[in-house]
Write a structure and sequence with these properties.
Radius of gyration: 22 Å
Structural class: alpha+beta
Distance between the termini: 53 Å
Number of strands: 9
Largest sheet: 3 strands, antiparallel
Number of helices: 9
Amino acid sequence: MSGDRVDLCFGVGGAKAIVLAPLTGADEAAAAAPDHLLRRLALTGERLVHGEELAQMTIGDRDRAIAALFRQLYGDVVQADAVCAGCAATYEIRFSLAALTAGRVPDGTASGDPAAITLGDTRLRLPQMRDFTGAPDDLIARLVLTGPDPDPQAAEHALEGADPALELDLTGTCPECDTVQATPFSMAGFLQASMQRDRAFLAREVHLIASAYHWSLAEIHSLTRHDRQTYARLLIAEREAGAVQIRRAS
């Protein structure tokens, strides 16, 4: 089975991993949201989470899978822009995704299937991806397995510790005025923004390859992202070399 394996902290029904197939142009063109992309790329197999089961992943497991997909596409280093609240200067925040995920691990309070925590007299299961299709105001109530409804703030704090999501505030210091501020970061949102930015490159690469090889759109979209970009780089290098020879000849 070819693909990147992502080990999950909780999994679904005994399946504790996802294997992500290499991204193709068809995947890039069709899937705008990271959740849809995971569904397209998750391979079937024994004890692997895939298909409709993905909706039963915890939010932390979902974010860890998205982080693995981001590393597959862009590498480990995340570069994000922040705007200083003090002087309005734009500066860059850089960090290691591996280091971030290593610092956002479950605290060990959740157990069982579905994974749940005990808060006083209440047993709460961890939020799953499918829980966020309902009304957000009654989310905590919908997570109660046994016992009374808990204090919402206490429940949110306990659930966050049990299964931290990669959605948090990153602290940065402005290099211009030394203002320290928190910048919101969402793993899912950042991957989506990065892929939307790359849509223009996808179109250019398709045009370049089609012009050179006369392949159909479907054939080019079936290439993996890595293979498509390799062809595009070779064609660009070939054109640049030809242009240099023409200038020298003239």
